[in-house]
Design brief:
Elements (H helix, E strand, L loop, with lengths): L1 H18 L4 E4 L2 H9 L4 E6 L4 H14 L8 E6 L4 H7 L6 E6 L2 E7 L4 H9 L3
Parallel strand pairs: 1-3, 2-3
Antiparallel strand pairs: 2-4, 4-5
């Protein structure tokens, strides 16, 4: 019994440590985005759609990259292309599978349709 408790505690500790070393990948929230951007934090808005084949290729890559410690400071806001139409208009986004990257409160780059991990990594790194 004691051995299982120690093992469980070790697993919980590892999960907590891993969780503290990952980027924030969260659903888009205008107030949180505005606050992070105003504070000059590195943010990425990722416009995706569940029906989009390109987005389906991108999603696991983004999730994998978000787990890397280097991207810990970056908040990746996932914006649903079908419902965030006002945001699309504001950011002048006309296609799903688009990343809009902000550094120190200003847009620094954007990318649409990238499906290769090195290219997506390079886009996300622009936020740092």
């Amino acid at each position: 019994m004691k051995k299982n408790s120690v093992k469980s505690a070790s697993v919980v500790l590892l999960l907590l440590l891993a969780g503290s070393a990952v980027a924030n990948e969260v659903p888009f929230n205008q107030a949180a985005f505005d606050q992070a951007r105003a504070a000059g934090k590195p943010v990425v808005v990722y416009f995706h759609a569940d029906w989009c084949p390109t987005c389906r290729v991108q999603q696991p890559i983004v999730a994998r990259l978000a787990l890397e410690p280097v991207f810990k400071p970056v908040t990746i806001y996932e914006a649903d292309f079908d419902t965030e139409t006002a945001l699309e208009k504001t950011m002048n986004v006309s296609q799903q599978s688009t990343f809009v990257v902000f550094k120190q409160g200003h847009e620094v780059t954007r990318s649409t349709g990238q499906t290769q991990e090195p290219a997506i990594r390079a886009v996300l790194q622009q936020a740092l």
